[in-house]
Amino acid sequence: MILKIYNSYSSNRLIYFVKPDILLRETLDNAQKWGDCVLREEKKAEKRKDLVGICLDCFVEKGLTVATTKDLCKAAKLQNGGIYYYFSTKEEIVLACAEEAISRIEKAAFAIVLEDISDIKSMMDHLGELADKMSPTMRFLVSVCVSREYGEKVKPSLVRLAARYPYYTGRIAEILGCTDEEVAPFVHLSILAINNYMIFAERALFDPQIEAVKKELSRLAERKGRNNR
Questions:
Q1: Shortest CA distance to 73 belongs to which of 100, 45, 88, 54?
Q2: Which residue of 40, 52, 107, 213 is most buried, as measured by CB atoms within 10 A?
Q3: What's the rounded Cα separation, in Å, for the pair 69 and 79?
């Protein structure tokens, strides 16, 4: 707060002189307030990130239409309504959880592919195990996608995911020593097969597609082996 202001007239203009020590103190106080505000927002963002994971687990366990705000607050160990300090609406929570569900499935699936691609059979077996594990998460995501309330609003997240497929295709092609065009159909078929299995939990839909992918990827891997001899 400015305590003293001196004024004088010069050429019919009012000129203000502020004591330097007061101005410096106000500047430091304002900088401290700004720093505190930034720190609070950073902590809030970190907490919000943790809450997304907790809320997603709650939705996966109870279901999109069954889980209430009270359930989310209880899971997060917040007072009733406390979650709205971090999110504006339930819709914001649901869409953030859908984004997290996409991220979990994507990272887990492609981590297996890029790690195990040298052993096609092992890779496909691990993808099958992943599909079993991530099935509840995928079903939550599907429930968001087909809902009247959230379906249109979650589409941008799905579009961003699809836009990342060429990157993974290129990585797999590089490892197998083939072109993107050769491997792309089998990448997309694998994604389709895994998605179908996670949604429907039916091996009859999963096995024939995965066997076809396994056969063709093995052929490409064998060709690379012959070329390296």
A1: 54
A2: 213
A3: 11
Question: 3-class DSSP state for residue 31?
Answer: helix
Task: For 191-213, write each residue's pLDDT tens digit.
Answer: 988 998 899 888 887 888 888 88
Whether 97 contacts 55, CB under 8 Å: yes
The answer to whether 65 and 75 have CB atoms below 8 angstroms apart is no
Q: pLDDT digits over 2-57, tens only?
A: 444 444 444 444 444 455 666 556 665 665 555 555 556 788 889 999 999 999 99
Paired tokens of 200: 């429907």
pLDDT digits (tens, 9 = 90+) for 75-98: 999 999 999 999 999 999 999 999
d(CA 140, CA 125) in angstroms, rounded, equals 24
Could you tell me the pTM of the whole model? 0.78
The burial of 155, by beta-carbon neighbours within 10 Å (0-12 exposed, 13-18 middle, 19 or more buried), is given as exposed
Dihedral over alpha carbons 82, 87, 93, 99 (to 10 degrees): -140
